Amino acid sequence: AAWITEFVTSVEDDRPRVAASGRHAERFGGQLVLVTGAGSGIGRATALAFAEAGARVVAVDRDAEAAARTAESSLRAGAPAAWAETADVSDEQAMERLAAKVGAEYGVVDVLVNNAGIGLSGSFFDTTPEDWKKVLDINLWGVIHGCRLFGGRMAERRQGGHIVNVASAAAYQPSRALPAYSTSKAAVLMLSECLRAELAGQGIGVTAVCPGFVNTAITSTAHFAGVDADEEKRLQRRTARIYGLRNYPPEKVAAAILRAVARNEAVVPVTPEARGARVLSRFAPGI
Ligand code: NAD
């Protein structure tokens, strides 16, 4: 059947998507790129990739020192300018202050990457209302604040732009272990598709990036809030066994983000299992 062919191809077709040299074909010279959660993992790798591609970078994180390290590394990687800003993306007032400062001092953001997020594992009945609130406040509301504040200024400017929201394969892959996290990411995926439709006429692209397991602090068990460490380890081992992979580096997700912006892609599953699960969810949801 067609979906089997597409499934197998999507899982196997990893290598051609990533430049062997690790260099990015895309150039973002003169553009202002703001990345949230830029202090670590995918956000840090993305900030550095845009820096290598010539962009001016605003590295935002709630961890001030981590944001500062990314800004310094961005300059070394080739960014003509880079700034560190401290903000908690779930804090509406802090995000308004950030947007006002960025607008006044650095300019209108050309590419916004709403990447900041936290992991949360535990079955539905193990997940407390406080846990739900925490994960939705950061993973969903953080994206909403970013899109409203920076996307709004992009739209007013009338010169186009691009918004990348980092969702997850968890957005379309049901899991007993991650109900709150998966729900937050499914909402980010739908939000991105709705906003893409709304902003298309204004030359603003919106992309939802959906990674599977990536080797960052969030997938190291210590970093998961409220965590069932054994379950998380078990999931990782199972994924590794099924797909024969481990240690998918955040730099590859960053490369996929740059490509998605350059090509204005809508939904981008990254990592072989994320692509495979996307095909299954569309063509064979019962499997
Ligand atoms: P990470 O923990 O390495 O990095 C997350 C960064 O976000 C940290 O620097 C942290 O300080 C920052 N952050 C967290 N909450 C914040 C807040 N409220 N305000 C501002 N900054 C905040 O994790 P990562 O794996 O790089 O995750 C980045 C994004 O990718 C997340 O949205 C995550 O859900 C998503 N994702 C990760 C994976 C994976 O396997 N690593 C898979 C799919 C999706």
TrEMBL record:
Domain of life, source organism: Bacteria
Keyword Ligase attributed: no
Keywords, in A-Z order: Oxidoreductase
Domain Ketoreductase: 31-212
Protein family per UniProt: Belongs to the short-chain dehydrogenases/reductases (SDR) family.
Protein name: SDR family oxidoreductase
